[in-house]
TrEMBL record:
Keywords: Disulfide bond, Repeat, Signal. Residues 233-253 are annotated as: Disordered. The keyword Cytoplasm does not apply. Disulfide bonds join 149-176. This is CUB domain-containing protein. It comes from the Eukaryota. CDD domains: CUB.
């Protein structure tokens, strides 16, 4: 993208994460569990050359599977052609891919649309690295209505995104406010799955602003403002049980 394109890819997920119960470091497993850990073979030592592994993951029927990479170091290459990790939105490679990953940096959070996913790992005969550690868990998503511009979210877990995501650019001159509210004894953790915004100094053009108070104007509870095109913010935790997320775009195209 360029500075002249208004592009926003902002899938955010808020959830509670429990401790993982088991580690799966053997290739070609079918896993039925609500949570767990998958590692590349031999981790934390280097993986072997010419390896192909797959893990079929099935979480509870009424929930959604999520993958969060805790560590990642896989041989980098153009289009991840040599070594890679792939995640599919279903139990086989015939389902739509959710991402292909390689290199030394942790991928963003991967959120499926169902309770079943396939994770594969491939290495060629050249360079080997230490591999990856991936946590999977299940969440029950309260999803905002497609292309909704703001709204109230009250479930313990959920997701929302910018208008038109992921098919096309968001519109000009819009302001959307999402109010997240959970029970008084809980806090909210906000996680960006992906973000691509028009960059500007001090985020004066397009931005996502997060407040941790009980109104969308309580700047004393300012938690962050984001607008960089290729930077995914770290997890954001609210001080209380409410959070406001405001997306604003300017009139430029």
């Amino acid at each position: 993208v360029t500075l002249f394109l208004l592009t926003c890819s902002a899938l955010l997920t808020y959830c509670q994460i429990e401790e993982e119960s088991s580690v799966h470091n053997v290739c070609n497993q079918t896993i039925s569990a609500g949570q767990g850990i998958i590692t590349s073979p031999n981790f934390p030592n280097n993986y072997d050359p010419n390896t192909y592994c797959k893990w079929q993951i099935r979480v509870e029927d009424d929930r959604t599977a999520v993958v969060e990479f805790r560590y990642f170091n896989v041989e980098n290459s153009p289009n991840c052609a040599y070594d890679n990790v792939q995640i599919y939105n279903g139990p086989s490679t015939s389902h739509p891919p959710l991402g292909t990953f390689c290199g030394p940096f942790r991928p963003n959070l991967v959120v499926s649309t169902s309770n079943r996913i396939l994770l594969t790992f491939k290495s060629d005969d050249s360079t080997q690295k230490t591999g990856f550690v991936a946590a999977f868990y299940s969440i029950h998503l309260q999803r905002a209505e497609p292309n909704s511009c703001g709204g109230l979210l009250t479930d313990d877990e959920g997701s929302f995104h910018s208008v038109n995501f992921p098919k096309s650019n968001y519109p000009n001159s819009m302001t959307c406010v999402w109010h997240i509210r959970t029970s008084p004894d809980r806090r909210i953790v906000l996680r960006f799955g992906k973000m691509t915004l028009e960059s500007s100094e001090n985020c004066r053009f397009d931005s996502v602003t997060i407040l941790g108070g009980s109104t969308d104007s309580d700047t004393s509870r300012f938690l962050g403002r984001y607008c960089k095109r290729s930077e995914t913010p770290t997890d954001i935790q609210s001080p209380g049980n409410e959070m406001y997320v405001t997306f604003s775009s300017d009139s430029s195209g």
